[in-house]
Amino acid sequence: MTSLHADAVRVLTGWTPVGDGQDELRRAYLAHLADRPDGMWRACPEGHITASALVVDPAGGRVLLTLHPKVGRWLQMGGHCEPGDGTLAAAALREAVEESGVEGLVLLPVDGRPGPVKLDRHLVRCAGKDRPENTHLDVQYVALAPAGARELISEESLDLRWFDWDGLPADTDRSVRDLVARARELV
């Protein structure tokens, strides 16, 4: 078991879910990790844990979303865990910085330390359009942007854009809307 795997078990075991279905997902994630020592990694065929972070500008009342090149939708920053990630929180923060280009992001403390705010399980073709779908077991955080934060598009995004809390694109999926609502409650 890697330290990242152990951290995921620790985080999910100690996390108090809020919202419909969140405790059921938490238990499913823990069962996945108990059954799969490789359950953190993209190569796990049954699915894998991913880490994401919604970038929030609390002073401006807005969120930064990326137009994801593979999915073609506006999403929070996030992706696969990597061997160099020591913790789930570190993976989420790394993904947020890499995909947003925003320096100085900090994860929102939950119960005094960076913690998840929501879980989301979804199917995605992370190996390409012609490959079978994989299950992403996403652990979602909130990353707070410093005042005056400026985004920088990377090769992992088609576009980056700030949206007001109530001004999300019309085709934004339910998962992202729920994450934005949860973040708004917390900040």
From TrEMBL:
<protein>
    <recommendedName>
        <fullName>Nudix hydrolase domain-containing protein</fullName>
    </recommendedName>
</protein>
<dbReference type="InterPro" id="IPR015797">
    <property type="entry name" value="NUDIX_hydrolase-like_dom_sf"/>
</dbReference>
<dbReference type="InterPro" id="IPR000086">
    <property type="entry name" value="NUDIX_hydrolase_dom"/>
</dbReference>
<dbReference type="Pfam" id="PF00293">
    <property type="entry name" value="NUDIX"/>
</dbReference>
<feature type="domain" description="Nudix hydrolase">
    <location>
        <begin position="46"/>
        <end position="185"/>
    </location>
</feature>
